[in-house]
């Protein structure tokens, strides 16, 4: 590999290929063939290193990558170029203007008079003006809008302004797709978690509670078998969030240093976590029932009994 390997992934549904996607310090995503041990081909599009890769759960040809440039790209490995770039401002409630666009609009609004004169309605729609009785400021605004509309056009290769859309304000260091392949969860170095609707590419605006995530390492996320809980390494703890509401359901504390990865076993409903303390911990659901709380001689145990001591 040309540099440090951040993440590797293999498709769970592939039947036609045995490719391993590798995200490295290089801007290109490399697909390695197990049978030959060589590179099958590379995917170019990111402008910085790739920290996370995730295969689709519904198609063996679709790969999702997250880079240090804050972009999440969807690839069809049978074709050149990515076919989708997620934009955090593209939400289910409509597209939100960027901060720069909003600030420019606010400055422009301060220059306009507040009175409802005959030209006030025309000023609100400068692109529809066809008469030359306005000042030069109006013409420059029209020219800027025409140039801006040209940049919004989509054409092959995603060579447009949407190609530079970002999903996070920092590096995308974690990706996890739901078991049905309909939603994608992303984690960034900006300590934000975002849930995406894959079909529309919209940000679902689920407000996950504030958590501190690692910024310099790739993070492995895990989702429960019924896609209701998502397990996220948050420094030295592992938090379980409700996937649809963003609320913190539990904090799993046991590691002495930062947690790097977690894996969920759907058969036994167990969670495995690994950290910098060189420990692998196994978390299993509580199997305590009312019958187990009663002793053989009819004595009841305290529910908060210490189970760690001998």
TrEMBL record:
<feature type="repeat" description="WD">
    <location>
        <begin position="252"/>
        <end position="284"/>
    </location>
</feature>
<feature type="repeat" description="WD">
    <location>
        <begin position="165"/>
        <end position="206"/>
    </location>
</feature>
<dbReference type="InterPro" id="IPR019775">
    <property type="entry name" value="WD40_repeat_CS"/>
</dbReference>
<dbReference type="InterPro" id="IPR042238">
    <property type="entry name" value="Rad28/ERCC8/Ckn1/ATCSA-1"/>
</dbReference>
<protein>
    <submittedName>
        <fullName>WD-repeat protein</fullName>
    </submittedName>
</protein>
<keyword id="KW-0234">DNA repair</keyword>
<dbReference type="InterPro" id="IPR036322">
    <property type="entry name" value="WD40_repeat_dom_sf"/>
</dbReference>
<dbReference type="GO" id="GO:0006283">
    <property type="term" value="P:transcription-coupled nucleotide-excision repair"/>
</dbReference>
<dbReference type="InterPro" id="IPR015943">
    <property type="entry name" value="WD40/YVTN_repeat-like_dom_sf"/>
</dbReference>
<dbReference type="Pfam" id="PF00400">
    <property type="entry name" value="WD40"/>
</dbReference>
<feature type="compositionally biased region" description="Polar residues">
    <location>
        <begin position="100"/>
        <end position="122"/>
    </location>
</feature>
<feature type="repeat" description="WD">
    <location>
        <begin position="43"/>
        <end position="85"/>
    </location>
</feature>
<keyword id="KW-0677">Repeat</keyword>
<keyword id="KW-0853">WD repeat</keyword>
<dbReference type="InterPro" id="IPR020472">
    <property type="entry name" value="WD40_PAC1"/>
</dbReference>
<dbReference type="InterPro" id="IPR001680">
    <property type="entry name" value="WD40_rpt"/>
</dbReference>
<keyword id="KW-0227">DNA damage</keyword>
<feature type="region of interest" description="Disordered">
    <location>
        <begin position="96"/>
        <end position="134"/>
    </location>
</feature>
